Prior knowledge:
Elements: E1 2-6, H1 11-15, H2 18-27, E2 32-38, E3 53-57, H3 65-71, E4 75-78, H4 83-92, E5 96-98, H5 103-111, H6 122-128, H7 148-155, E6 165-169, H8 181-189, E7 194-198, H9 204-214, E8 218-220, H10 227-235, E9 239-243, H11 246-253, E10 257-262, E11 283-287, H12 310-313, H13 317-324
Parallel strand pairs: 1-2, 1-4, 2-3, 4-5, 6-7, 6-9, 7-8, 9-10, 10-11
Helix pairs in contact: 7-10, 8-9, 8-13
Amino acid sequence: MKFLIIRFSSIGDIVLTTPIIRALATADEDNEVHFITKEKFSDTLKNNPNISKLYTIKKEITEVEDELRDENYDYIIDLHHNLRSRRLIAKLGRPYKYFNKLNYEKWLKVNLKWDILPDVHIVERYMDTISFLGLKYDGKGLDYYLEDSTEKNFSKLNITKETAYNVFVVGGAHNTKQIPNDILIKIGKKCKNRIVLLGGTEDIENAIEVEKGIGANCFNLVGKTNLNLSAIIIKYASKVLCPDTGLMHIAAAFGKEIISVWGNTIPEFGMYALLPNGKEKLNHIVEVKSLKCRPCSKIGYNSCPKKHFKCMKEQDIDKIVSLLG
């Protein structure tokens, strides 16, 4: 059978699709799994051996529409479920299954604090879209595949596999999900292991402040690595300190010990780090549970709507330091 999986964004969301890719690809040796995403996220999947064809778009589905129509898919698995994906399905005219985003349940939790969210990870909900094939999550966690050249690039860095270091992730898609600089500095000053900072070019200014605040024990690589180089740095790290962000899911794919710090979003939305069965104890979730204003959004804001940002400012720094060891 031939399948097309649709997930246009983001890095974390795409990494979270890897169990369903694996399940479809390994269910039958004749199965083909094709995937469509945005070009800027292609590094996340381009080395995945379970994908037969990876299609990318810069902006519009018309860029690959004719090619996809020629594939004559048995099923389209829509894990994005928005207007763009529905347009693509309509144009291809093939059988499809779509992912339930639970937008209504999330709205109730955010706005009325009514909790009717199912106690399941998003991967399990992704897997529900192919349950009609008799396929279930195999418990093996997430996948992230690196090309051979990445290992060579890692060897050029001023860090080694043999010397213990912890990764601190600077930044995030939304400010209210980011760990504030002053908190990263306070944690970093108390850490024994060397600290490697990772993040995107948009986080460079914050990273410089954190690096200066922590001092000589901090190695700042923010904005200096591509996604795959960041991934291999995470692969060889002792532990990873991160907010709710894409690098958290990459860390989970490598089975790392993760200390995830949650601000305005909550793990109950089902997007916490998913480690393989047997490694669940390596996932440490840190959050300020007593705040009545959490969650204030299912995604995030540029600034705290309440102006106090207590969900990050009141984090237990000593607890985080003890988890980092």
